[in-house]
Design brief:
mainly alpha, 2 domains, about 0% strand, cell cycle, mitosis, chromosome
Length: about 140
Amino acid sequence: MTMGDHGTIRLTRLMETFKKFQDKTFEEFTFEDFAAQFHSDLVSCQREFLFDLYSQLVSMTRSSNEEEFNLILEQFNVCEKLETLERMLEQQPEGSFGVPLSDTRPATAMRFLSCKRKQEECERLGAWLARLESENDDLRP
């Protein structure tokens, strides 16, 4: 497999991710959401027509987005940048810029600290609520 093949694979994965994002968007904007924008009498008598209209809207949006995706790739030289990244990784097998892949990345460390703080705050609030409930029970006749 050549360097260009790796770039093509990454580009394909980028496109697959983009399509998954689109799928998720259209899962949240269903035909029922679309039909709710119209008067109920229109929906009941023209449901089939509205469904065709919704299907065309989804199809046209997907098509336009795929074209725009390719334009964005060209505009920002994404293919060229992927090939450059591939060359850099080949020159430094331990990872780019000499950082071993086994090291904890700063973003990962920050997420861990954030998660730990959230858990501590959750425990503190849980104890506070338990204390309030106990005090309320004491006040009841």
